[in-house]
Amino acid sequence: MKLFDELKIGNMTLKNRIVLAPMGTTTDSTNSFNMRDVNFYAERAKGGAGLVLTGAVVCSEEFEPAPCQKLITCKDVYMLHMIAERVHMYGAKFGIQLSPGIGRMNWIDPNTPTYSASPCPNYYVPTMTCKEIPTDGVKRLVKAMGESAVLAKNAGVDIIELHGYGGYLIDQFTSAKWNHRTDEYGGSFENRQRFLFEIVDEVKRRCGKDYPIAMKMTLSSVDDDERPIEEGIAIAKRLCEKGIDLIHVGRGAYSCRWRMVSSVYQPRGFDVEIGDILRPVIGNTPLMIHGKLNHVETAESALQEGKTDLIAIGHGLIADPHWPNKVKKNKLDEIVPCIGCAECHYNAMLGHARPCAVNPLCMHENEFELTPASEEVKDMRILVLGAGPGGMKAAIAAKQRGIKSVEIWEKKEYVGGNMAAAGMPRFKTDVMDQVRYLERQMYKHGVEVKLGKKATSADVIAYKPDYVIVATGAEPIVIRVPGYDKKHVTTAVPALMGEFKLGQTVVIVGGGDVGCELATELQYQGKHAIIVEIQDKIMTAPTFVANHQNLTYLLKNSGAEILTSTGIKEILDDGVMVEHDGQMRKIPCDNVVFSAGFRPDQTLYQEIKAAGIEVVQIGDNVKARKIIDAIHEGYHTVRVLD
Q1: Of 41, 123, 168, 185, which one is the catalytic site residue?
Q2: Residue 168 annotated in active site
Q3: Around Cβ 621, how many Cβ atoms within 10 Å?
Q4: DSSP H/E element including 329
Q5: Which residues, at least 6 apart from 622, have a Cβ–Cβ distance to it below 8 Å?
Q6: Of 512, 484, 347, the residue nearest 422 (C-alpha)
Q7: What is the reported pTM?
Q8: C-alpha–C-alpha distance, residues 308 and 312, integer Å
Q9: CA distance linking residue 462 with residue 151, whole number of Å
Q10: pLDDT digits (tens, 9 = 90+) for 159-178
């Protein structure tokens, strides 16, 4: 496979074409690297990546507080050197993404303006105008980039990737939308690029002409005028003329974050065609692209067809750091699929240590490993109720710890629970991949699986378990308006799973993510979906912005009808009665689907507990939440069992 061919970047040789893509990495309140970072990057190197890149590391705090890790003084080198050592132990190369700042994307507080190329709206507080970095300040930033690059080189970093992507500070200088300066750094296209190319020159001057420098750049901002594609192509051409060693390119900006950071809804390899655009321009300069390339066929094809020279995988290597080695050994069934939920990014933005929904060990590589159970625990009789993601993960973890008797009961004739329904739309196949992975792991580890078995407390008591894990999920909320129990009425899960045949026109009650995904899928099937939402907005639950933007885009372009501030009052045989602004209206339809959320039924748990059996609840049976909650609780419930 070409994935495992060597590649030369300047004077540096990579053992293969697989790169841990740079991703936001703030895990410490001091904005320094710490032992969790050391273990995180080392694990990806151990897993077989040829190049391990950090996310953005800033060179200065003169104009903004560090939004991520910093590399400013010798004190910042200590942990960076430790990461480099660990990565090198596995034959991988190590690089950092170096940035002069993020400018208008920074956040201090609602009243303190940040700096940018010139006065422009702050991203988070658009009513607040950013201040212009003075000319001498720009020159100090250029110098600081060189100084930080030297610190990195001395720490054992093999390559510097300059961060000029996604609308951050370098992009703000190069973009006519944000740069209205009247000095040498503004005005003409040439002047707007000056900041970038002075940085390239300074890093080369300080680190030596043989030290590899990469550039992560925005080809186009797609949905707005931040970066016209013509300018992106021109910048790439000039970078190659300057002797840049590697171009890492993507598309998008904060206005369409789902093109900048992959979402659950994006297709595999959604930016592969960039190679066709740039290859004639950049010639033999190595090219790296990203965008859901953790699918082997997609990645290998992109290399074979010459669309790229390097495959950057971000979220996929968070989910499974050993993806490269598993591919190399043809253990594809063992790969832990990334589901695209972006809990990693979403939680990192909240200040958490970047957890992964499907990999509880992410950022806890040496903390949360499963250990062999004691002889007493190994002899326990474990019963798991519910084969959703949490139940399956718990059962697998129990067998991995060496517990001999592990049985799982599932009332449906399929595994996955609500996660299986979540993976049914054609634009969410990554979620279904995870369901299939967990199913394979259960059978591989010898979990006794009983489908079509609805648990009762009497059955559980008769089974005589030593420990019961209740993972039965939550039940759909049905609004009991007149007609709610008619035969043409159902809920979202049966509708998504194809267990309930829907007619041509479908009213969906509830405009949360599930209802909007169902509406979009039905539109793709050639049906007409009408969302009825009592609130004045749809999709109000907290979620990662890229997923929210992408689903909004899909729904808008699907042609589904959306009625907000509208309440359902009655379900008729041939339609529904709704109320909007005090006015009643009939909407003709063939079916009604309730997608108004879920609530747990904890009766079974309480009955088992009352019987004196040791029992614990996980996932949606505690409270309707997310996949990350179910999988992590399933894993940790068993991990700490002693």
Answers
A1: 168
A2: yes
A3: 26
A4: none
A5: 600, 633
A6: 512
A7: 0.95
A8: 10
A9: 66
A10: 999 999 999 999 999 999 99
